[in-house]
Amino acid sequence: MGDNRIDVVVADDDPAVREALADLIDSHPDLELVGLAINHEQAVRAAVDHRPQVVVMDVHMPRGDAPSSVRAIRDQVPGARVVALSAHGDRETVLDMLAVGAHGYLVKGTPAEEILEAIVRASRDQFSMSAELLADCAEPLRRAERASWRFEDLVGNRLEESYLELLGQAPCGVLVVGSRGRVEYANAHARHMFGYGSAELRDKRLRDLVPERYHTASEQLIGRVFTAPSAMTGRRRDGTEFPAQFSGGHLQGRQPRGVVFIADLGPLRAAESRFRQLIESSPDAMVIVDEQGRIQAANNRTEALFGYDRDHLIGRAVEALLPDQPLTISLREWDDSAKEPLGHSMELVGRRSDTKQFPADVSISPLRTEEGLLTVLTIRDITEVQRAQFVLERSLELLEVTDRDRQALLSHLVHAQEAERGRIAADIHDDTIQVITAASLRLQQLRRRLRDPEEQRVMDKLDETLKLSLSRLRQLIFDLRPSSLEHGCLAGALRGLLEQIRTETGITYRLEDRLTTSPPAETMALIYRTAQEALMNVRKHAHAKTVHVQLLGLDDGCLVRIVDDGEGYNPLEVESRPGHLGLSLIQERAQIAGGWCRIESEPGSGTTVEFWVPLGDAPGAPPGPLGSPEPPEGDLQP
């Protein structure tokens, strides 16, 4: 073995491909085959034993996974470079391999010369990938770069003007103070609040707008990045004063300037009076409790419900109305306003003045005031509600048993269907694609030995036919088992399907993913297959130019909306014809999952397909009002 020879290990679980690659490497004068492996475990062991410069590895092999194998080889044999060779060319698989340090990624069916060149380049620490794969993987980066450029351009030209325009529309008073501590800008609210014209406020100091006792506090608002709201008093031009809340901050721009926000608290006093009137007019009992759990106020309905005079209740502990209950009304744990349980409700037991008890629904809400943190308790007698609930629960027991059986059946069906698709895809990858790949490699080796141009042309055509077969088989694998779906990405799987339709038919698409919760695996498969059926109808029958797909979170479920601009049809006429099973399958899949489906179309106006399924732990929830929202009435557009 010469000093310039490149040692290579080949790892592929298909014997025909493995032997074809071995012969191909032996045919190159600068390459030396030093080891073979049939699974991931053997690939790592062969790399450690033979310490090659390059490992050619099939991505999908038994006993491990490709990213883990690449990491193990890089850790134990730092000088080895991995070139991936796989039937899968989807973006997720490619990026997974590149993320762990692979030096190349080729799909099976790549010309033999390119495979040999990739091995040589990897030995030189150079990267290899087909232009098509590289463009697909780089597209998200190009979109991010264009978005960043647009944002920087906007910030560079409009930032300061946008800030001032936004401050002018603020619902409170706003003063912009320059480096000399003088007012440079005041919005309409500030001018009205203090009674000055725009020119009169300019060049005034903030201390000129507050009484003398607040001069020091007002000066502390200037030049700070942010100050918490502080209660002070404002002074108008005519000398009158009004309660106000002041806060300060820093205005980003070409020059350092401060901004002061002023809120007139005078209307708040009037709001307090209206709040008390609101409490009195409430149909439920309402009690206001302080931090020590003592009643500070109660409305007329409280007197009627509990039989106490309100003067008798003021100052008493709330346990007089809700005794021996796990009710914590102390607000010491509610200091973080983001965690305040607004409108939090619980079912407790109330006790009237005659000691009779009744079930009560108690809603607990914090109320921040100048006097401190209070609690508003809204109490409702739910005796009749509980009676009705008892009857309803008994009526639903049979429905619940039926629903569990339906859920189990749906789960079994979805699992069985996806398992069968996975088995077929695996058989295609492990048998058909491997055999065709081996034949392609053999064919390319044979072509290099031919000298007759006519024979070479025949071999080229045969090679193109094999490549076309490989491409179609890879697409079939994607259709049967989208890799994005296996990675838990519903939007990615649908994007791949839409891209396939665009490539084959020219139909452009727009995909919106507004789901904030990832569906369970079986529900995700059901959503994908239902959407796939609808999109196949668009592809075959709609004669559309564009299709818009939306994934929306709605009422603890997923709403899928598919809208095309095709020629449309009469649903009643088409669905009644024999052989139109696609529309029925869409509706049946949604209904068996506990959801609903709606199809709206008319000739010349395109078609809209909407279906909703719940996102529970497993597919299947009671249909209609028991477990899913009703389909919308009228216009289907958002």
Automatic annotation (TrEMBL):
All copies of domain Response regulatory, residue ranges: 7-123
CDD domains, sorted: HATPase_UhpB-NarQ-NarX-like, PAS, REC_NarL-like
InterPro entries (alphabetical): CheY-like_superfamily, HATPase_C_sf, HATPase_dom, NreC/VraR/RcsB-like_REC, PAS, PAS-assoc_C, PAS-like_dom_sf, PAS_4
Record carries keyword Hydrolase: no
Domain PAC residues, every copy: 344-394
Residue ranges, annotated region (Disordered): 615-638
Feature: compositional bias, Pro residues: 620-631
Catalyzed chemical reaction(s): ATP + protein L-histidine = ADP + protein N-phospho-L-histidine
NCBIfam families, sorted: sensory_box
Protein name: histidine kinase
Native organism taxonomy: Bacteria, Bacillati, Actinomycetota, Actinomycetes, Kitasatosporales
